[in-house]
Amino acid sequence: MSGPRQKVEPETVAELVRLYNDGQTIERLARRYALTYQRARALLLGAGVALRPPKIQLPPTPPGMVKDYLGGWSIRQLAAKHGRSYNQTRRMLLAEGVQLRQRGAQPYEIATSAHLGSGR
After folding, report:
1. In this structure, is residue 59 part of a structural domain?
2. What is the pLDDT of residues 47-102, one digit of tens each?
3. Is residue 76 domain-shared with residue 110, that is, in the same domain?
4. How distant is the alpha carbon of residue 31 from its chain centre?
5. Residue 100 CB: number of other CB atoms within 10 A?
6. Rounded distance, CA 52 to CA 77, Å?
7. Are 79 and 88 in contact (CB under 8 A)?
């Protein structure tokens, strides 16, 4: 373990289990009880809860999405182009194994060519 964890009372864990089994999401439970997602999930698993599969399955990744992202398009641009939300587009790219850039970062090829063009 990395660092101390705040103790969660058995009554709280029982309530987490009950609410999760009643249909609450881990995200909502984590917010409600001021836990991280990972901690709420670990408490549920530790209590023997069988986690539900994600409710929203991703649709197939549109042709060209990965190529466009690797070519420099932002996630927001791709979302608009393909009629998807930002989060869904991001999840699609991650599901395809794409390593995402940091926010505002240029793709390697564009950053490299910009330096080459400046005479450096």
Report:
1. no
2. 999 998 766 778 899 999 999 999 999 999 999 999 999 999 998 998 898 899 98
3. yes
4. 16
5. 11
6. 32
7. yes
Range of the domain at 42: 10-46
Those residues with Cβ within 8 angstroms of residue 105's Cβ, 6 or more apart along the chain or in another chain: 111
Asked if residues 9 and 39 have their Cβ atoms less than 8 Å apart, the reply is: no
Q: How many CB atoms lie within 10 A of CB 105?
A: 10
Is pTM beyond 0.70 here? no
Helix-helix angle 37-46:10-21, to 10 degrees: 90
Query: Among 3, 16, 2, which residue's Cα sits nearest to residue 46?
Result: 16
User: What residues have CB less than 8 Å from 66, skipping those under 6 apart?
Assistant: 93, 96, 98
Number of C-beta neighbours around residue 92 at 10 A: 23
Is 90 inside any structural domain? Answer: yes
Domain count, the chain: 2
In the chain, the largest separation of any two C-alpha atoms, in whole Å, equals 66
Q: For the chain, count helices (H), then strands (E).
A: 7, 0
